[in-house]
Amino acid sequence: MIFSILPTTITTVFLSANLITTLSFKDDVRTFIYGGTKDEIFTELANNNKTLVIKAKKKDIETNLIVVTSKNRYYFKVMESDRFPHQFVEVEDGMINTNFKKIKETPSYDLFEGTSSVMIVSKKKEGIDVNGVNVLAKEYFSKGVPLFIDGIRILN
Q: Hey, is 95 helix, strand or coil?
């Protein structure tokens, strides 16, 4: 799975106690900071410091992780999930696209997909909650990452 991450966004990554998750970067990982304790997750750098291997050691983890590479910083919300954990994630730098294709339409929103970003258009006057952001009109999000609309996981 490819995560095309827009700058300064927080990306959710799901871990499992039964599965190793790898976050692979194009550039060397210089450091990473996990917001929890060492007894919550296993971490190790591999592949010449381009891959961070992580695995949950316990249930109900919800914290953050910052990964600093030689060229960028990535912010993650880390959650434990046995139902839909991520396994192999390739992290790329995303950018807001200018061309989109509509991939979903509901009474509350329209969802559009570009090559490295998605666009959400709210149809509700009061807006919709997308990954913790209140979208009143339209907003852009990273492509490939989990997308939560009003608390429901819609993508990935």
A: coil
Contact 29, 52 (CB under 8 A): yes
43, 52, 68, 88, 107 from 29: Cα distances, Å: 13, 8, 6, 16, 42
Quote the CA–CA distance of 89 and 86 in Å, as a whole number. 7
CB-count burial class (<10 Å; 0-12, 13-18, 19+) for 127: middle
| Alpha-helical segments (H) within the chain | none
Question: Residue with structure tokens 């999000």?
Answer: 141
Position of tokens 């907003």? Answer: 139
pLDDT tens for 10-44 read 999 999 998 999 999 999 999 999 998 889 999 99
Sign of CA dihedral 20, 79, 37, 11: positive
For residue 102, give both structure tokens: 């509509």
pTM of the model: 0.89
Q: Using alpha carbons only, what angle is made at residue 145 by residues 13 and 79, rounded to the nearest 5 degrees? A: 20
Tell me the CA end-to-end span of the chain in Å, nearest whole number.
9
